[in-house]
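#struct-pred

JT: dropping the chains for the assembly here, can someone run the whole complex?
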Amino acid sequence: MTTTAPVITYALPKRRHPVVAFTVAQPLGAIAFVVIVVMIGAGIFAPWVAPYDPVALDFGAMLAPPSFEHWFGTDAFGRDIFSRVIYGARTALTIGFLSSFVGCTLGAALGVASAYFGGRIDLVTQGFVDVILSFPLIVLALVVVAMLGKFVVGGVDLNLILAIAIPILPKVERVIRAAALSVREMPYVDAARAAGYSNMRIIFRHMSPNVAAPYLIMLTAYIAQAILLEASLSFLGLGVTEPTPAWGLMLSGNASDFYREAPWMILFPGLAISFAVFAFNLFGDSLRDWFDPRFKT
Amino acid sequence: MKKLAFIGLVAALALPATTNAQAPKKGGTLVYAISAETPTYDCSATDTYAGLHFLAPFYSTLLKFDLAKYPGVMGDLAESWTISDDKKTYTFKLRQNVTWHDGSPFSSADIKATYDRLRNPPTGVVSTRRATFADIASIDTPDANTVVFKLSAVNPAMLEHFASPWNCVYSAAKLKDDPQFPAKQVMGTGAFKFVEHVKGSHVAGARNDKYFLPDRPYLDGFKGVFILQPAAMLNALQGGQVMAEFRSVSPAERDRLVQGMGDKLRIEESSWTLNILIAFNTEKKPFDDVRVRRALSLALDRWGGSVGLSRTSTLRQVGGLLRPGSPMATPEADLVKFPGFGKDITANRAEARKLLAEAGVPNLKFELVNRTIAQPYTPAGIYVVDQWRQIGVEVQHKQMETSPYLAALNAGNYEVAIDFSNLFMDEPSLALAKYVSFDKAPENRSRAIDRELDSLYEKQNRSTSDAERLGFLRQFEARMLNQAYQVPLLWWHRIVPTNKIVMGWQMSPSHNLGQDLVNVWLNQ
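RK: done, full complex below.
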């Protein structure tokens, strides 16, 4: 007698592609992501997208209103504002991403190390962080940029990046430290210690990957802050210098003289800043919700 | 907007008739804006207008410029003067009814002490006009009302130098007690007595009732308010918090004021004794090569820039080393023959590329140092960066605050810089001093040493014949612009807004002149 084992089939739940799943779960975040991709694309392919050289002067077209020839009009030097907004994306994203990356990475490293070592090191670190946190973001950035001056390498002012990164650092440190404190108590960290691994190995190989989610969320969210800070510093004359196309810079200088007769000089760069900041903030919030299991239930 | 500006100009042209028609009224306090705060109280130690707009009402000078007959001079503390036939002795008869603000009498000893301090400052005292008065061999005071200057050599500019607004006359007694007295306290013989200086806020003066001119000043007092932001200054002028800004506003600011204030505003315009220069640091390669410097000058379309930049900035006229339109300025027909001043920009740029290729730097890259001051430095920087791009030169534009900017220029820590020439009169010896060799003129930011220029400067400075002097000037200018150590970009254009109640103030090509406020009155 032969018996045949019954064939049991399981209907596995259909797994959506992560991009589709994110789009369904976070539609606003997806739209923000598209805006960000468009901005990055515009920045990378600016020489092909922009119809004019963004720094070329044309006194014959000074203060021209928006038209088919100049979609966003021209400024007081006859420069095409659409082209300058496109190239401005390059400036905003480069400084925004690099500042956020430097600030978040240093903040995360400090936060994990502070949580791991605890004791006096943690106490001193938190005291230092408290001092920096007591300054408003813009004030601290102003102080740093005024103290450091400019150090331009490859067209990028490294001191400006540092000036924006420093105010971000303590905010990230505080969040990452909180996450790392819970990770520190995990059995695998104890096991690593018992196995005799070095502190550096434990921090970078075992603890850091487990705080990656908050790090990525803050990295995205602080790009928006960094873009806003860069625009503010440039507006105040402490950031990017003319004739480099930068959104904040486009709002200052001659724009303040001519905004009544040529409002397009401030309208389009202002909108670009708003869209960029809104998109990164929205995307950061959506990422946070997406990664947080509590929001999934 | 053009129409409004035109109305303003018409109003300005109508001013002299209005001023002359009305008898001055006594009383009132003039409130005006000063866009920078003086770095010192000592006139001898500074050459910024910020010092004069603060200090001039408190002090007198030996002579002063007669703005109604500019560039003529008139007596201030001097009642009359004579010049000897060999032009080496200047004798001044001084006013007899002059007293210091502390009540002590003024005498020729005060003039001697002031000029001794200018030409030979004691240790710790800064005199930026030491070289200007180096030709003075001796100063004698035969009596209390006579002072005699003897020169070691003829100097055709000396009379104008005696009228320099920076030569504030100080009390000999105070200087004897403390040579630093002028840097610490404000005490002169001027039309106004010092009342207070609130740092970051204002300076105030009250009428000097014992001023040597009868019935002057007309004002009860004045208040100079420090307003560093142009937008705030415009708002203050429109709102009536201040009555004037005596330095200048930009064309766009002028249009805004005309639109906002209508017939309450008076606009006066003039060419300006200021120019923007491009300085090449000849101690740094490749700017030690004349071909590179000349190529960079050739690439600048000054005539095109003059048309465009004059709409958005205080830059306007194309000129050589002397203010266009001034008596000894190079006429346009001669100017266009100099490298970079020709009107065929295509040909100029072709030659510029050729020169750069010959010099071995066809793809030149460098940093341009500039000030953060908006007008007219930023537009000038934007413009030259664009011009040089058109011959394949890549420029990093670095704007710095005034202090580090001046420190960088003075120490030679730059490759190419936007520099300026700030004159108070159209006098060749004054105007050309900036271009003689660096070891003789520290203000020569190119740091070039050129003995041919030095020799030509000395010849024009000693010449007693106008025609001969003009010949040396032309040779100097030709040498300078061909060597291109420093090259003029454009000359500035002065636009002064005043509330129409301000009367008696006289417009001039220099913002350093006419700030003693002696004849100013308020029509209210």
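JT: nice. The domain at 272-493 of chain B is CATH 3.10.105.10 (Dipeptide-binding Protein; domain 3). Residues 100 and 189 of chain B are 5 Å apart (CA to CA).
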